[in-house]
Write a structure and sequence with these properties.
There is one protein chain. By secondary structure, the chain is an alpha/beta fold. It folds into two domains: 72 residues, no CATH class; 280 residues, 3-Layer(aba) Sandwich (Rossmann fold), CATH 3.40.50. 35% of the residues lie in helices and 13% in strands. The chain contains eleven helices and eight strands. The chain has an eight-stranded mixed beta sheet with strand order 1-2-4-3-5-6-7-8, sandwiched between helices. Helix 1 runs parallel beside helix 3 and helix 7 packs across helix 8. The radius of gyration is 31 Å and the shape is globular. 38% of the residues are buried.
Length: 410
């Protein structure tokens, strides 16, 4: 009996040694994210054993090793999606091919504007909420001359540096080269209650603000925020042209839907629109716009749309398919005779492509600014230099309160 106990104890000890070695090998395999190689075979195990006893132990060890190896041969579970485009979903490898060009970055010799703000206005359209906005004043802005205006929904994301758009740099560069008119950039955040945090370029306020209620429903409520609350506040401080053809608005995702809604419901106030990956889907019933376009009289709206072929595709669910609905709205606008430009890329839901082409979108949208063809007009043929501040300058134009009376729509 004592010899049996001795053999059993020695066998357990040997097995423990084999098990320890196997688990160390498994740990190394896990560290390098691969299964152990095929170098350990049955014949190799048996050949290395010096006795029948050892061969038996080797077979037991090999069985254990095979069990561990087979589990390691399976691919590791996929990690959770990494945050991309400002924390709004998984990174899409297609988007790495869209990069900002020089017109979206600061350039030596180009006068830079300045941000004024943040400013806050209470909302009566959405009681209990308020909107924060910043005004980008280009270096060429003259309080004595009415300026155009471009509103940016989800303002913090559209002006973030580094970021996917950096719209203020685009304004600087294109205004300087006379490719767009002198305009104020208004970067407005979704509404929020005073106890809620400000939306950021990372979270956009999706779950911490009134964004969904303002941007998504196909109603005139957000248009009223812009026309009845934001514009009067701006007109009290800046000399803004009353011409609706000099009022533009843009946005991405749900912010793109909100931009379109402002022009659609208030075409006597806003007529220029840019959308990135617009959410014209079943989020809040915005897939109805193509039918509204078809059934309504044509409105004086100019729009540039961008989307990607991989934007939230939903086989079998056309109302929830982002790309399908963008193309459907574009077709309805074209059929009705609207002034439409559009581009379909390869990306999914994000601002990468839209940001990369944003300078060109702005050139197209604002191409009808007045131009002089006089060869002796040296001012027209020169860059727009920064305006030297005059001692009598005031933030509010001294000569007039900007009119809010719009042109009649067509």
């Amino acid at each position: 009996m004592s010899r049996c106990k001795f053999i059993a104890a020695r066998t357990c000890a040997r097995l423990n040694e084999f098990a320890g070695a196997l688990f160390r090998a498994a740990a190394r395999a896990r560290r390098y994210r691969r299964a152990p190689g095929p170098g350990l075979t049955i014949s190799a195990c048996l050949d290395s054993a010096s006795s029948a006893h050892g061969q038996a132990l080797a077979c037991l060890a090999l069985a254990l090793f095979s069990l561990v190896s087979s589990s390691q041969a399976q691919p590791p579970p996929a990690p959770p999606p990494a945050a991309g485009h400002g924390g709004r979903g998984a990174v899409n490898t297609n988007d790495v091919f869209y990069r900002l060009g020089p017109d979206s970055k600061p350039m030596d010799g180009v006068p830079k504007g300045k941000f004024a703000g943040p400013k806050v206005i209470p909302s009566s359209v959405f009681p209990g909420t308020q909107h924060t906005y910043d005004v980008y004043v280009p270096a060429q802005y003259d309080p004595a001359k009415p300026a155009a205006v471009m509103v940016f929904n989800d303002g913090p994301a559209m002006k973030a540096e580094p970021g996917d758009v950096q719209a203020q740099n685009v304004l600087d560069n294109l205004i300087f080269r006379r490719e767009i008119p002198i305009m104020l950039g208004i970067f407005i955040s979704p509404g929020r209650r005073p106890d809620q945090p400000e939306p950021t370029p990372r979270d956009w306020g999706d779950r911490t603000s009134n964004r969904a209620d303002e941007y998504n429903p196909p109603t005139d409520k957000y248009a009223r925020v812009i026309v009845e609350e934001l514009m009067p506040a701006l007109q009290r401080e800046y000399n803004i042209s009353p011409d609706p053809d000099l009022h533009g608005i843009m946005g991405a995702s749900s912010g793109g839907c909100a931009a379109f809604a402002v022009a659609w419901f208030k075409p006597n106030d806003f007529r220029k629109v840019i959308t990135f990956v617009g959410s014209f889907t079943s989020i809040r019933g915005e897939y109805i716009y193509p039918e509204l376009v078809a059934e309504s009289d044509k409105k004086p709206i100019r729009i540039f749309m961008q989307d990607g072929r991989n934007d939230n595709r939903r086989p079998g669910n056309p109302n929830g398919d982002w790309f399908y609905q963008n193309v459907r709205l574009m077709n309805a606008l074209v059929k009705k005779g609207y002034e439409v430009n559009y581009t379909w890329g390869i990306g999914n839901h994000g601002q990468k492509q839209g940001g990369a082409i944003f300078p060109e979108m702005m050139r197209w949208l604002w191409r009808d600014q007045p131009v002089s063809t006089d060869p002796n007009d040296t001012v027209e043929r020169s860059f727009r230099a920064a305006r030297a501040p005059a001692p009598e300058d005031q933030t509010k134009p001294a000569n007039q309160e900007a009119s809010t009376t719009p042109k009649e729509g067509k």
